Amino acid sequence: MSQEPPLQTAVRRFDARRVYTVLILAPLLYAAIRYLPPLAFTGLVFAVGTVALLEFYRLGLSTSYDKPYVGIGLFGFTAVILAPYSSPALVPGLLAMLIVTLSIPLILRLPLDHVLKNAAVTLFGVLYLGITLSFLVTTRLLPHGEWLVFFLLLVTWIGDTGAYYAGTIWGRHQLAPRISPKKSVEGLAGGLIAATMAAYLARWWFLPTLSVVDCAVLAVLLTAVGLWGDLAESAMKRSVGAKDSGGVLPGHGGMLDRLDSLLFTAPTFYYYVTLVSRPEAFA
Fold first, then answer.
1. What is the pTM of this model?
2. How far is CA 190 from CA 73, 203, 223, in A?
3. Residues of the chain with pLDDT under 50
4. Per-position b or e across 26-38, b if 16+ CB within 10 A of its CB
5. What CA–CA distances, in Å, run from 88 to 29, 32, 49, 92, 202?
């Protein structure tokens, strides 16, 4: 049987909904970051993070008795997202969440079959989504924060897009077949090239405070940790037999599917620009 040409394969797999979703949401995201105050961006992060957290809980919690755990998880998530504004209150809030989570089966007299699993999933969801997304809020609060957030989003998502299409057209050598069979070495290379181009475009366009070396290092770092975040989420979905976390974003799957790379790139980027890359420009 003759092998289908790579370009024909790409055309066959092309999903126009991915493009339509980006064309609709990208201008709204740009306006929210560029023209609204940081608190409005925090609200946006909270909204999309809440959707992703609910998707995560739908994957991991035992559905018969999950509502109390979801409520506690949302409380903890809110505390973590707002921590950059009131960090002293974070530890007491998380401690209260921990105590209440472990007390749910005692207070409500729920069956004990899934107590350990549900408590672990509840707490992990807050850490996995709350702590990582809070770095978006913290980055936005830095001087030039709106441009730093733009840089992070641009490099992360253009890198993801480059990896997707390079893997679709030229992918031959599987990268992590047990976790994500469609990930390929060629896709990783394409993502790195796309991320590098995006980093230098962003430097030229709106963030000249980043040096040429910074852009090269960040392209490599964000590509690597973004891939790691993607694979981590894929492993969790595979463990419960799910293909996508949801269907809220046509052509992209669930909100968690769209954020998986960003969950790892956000803290990496924040620590790089504040500790390594000319901290006097951002502190």
1. 0.88
2. 37, 20, 10
3. 1-2, 10-12, 14, 279, 283
4. eeebeeebeeeeb
5. 30, 28, 22, 8, 35
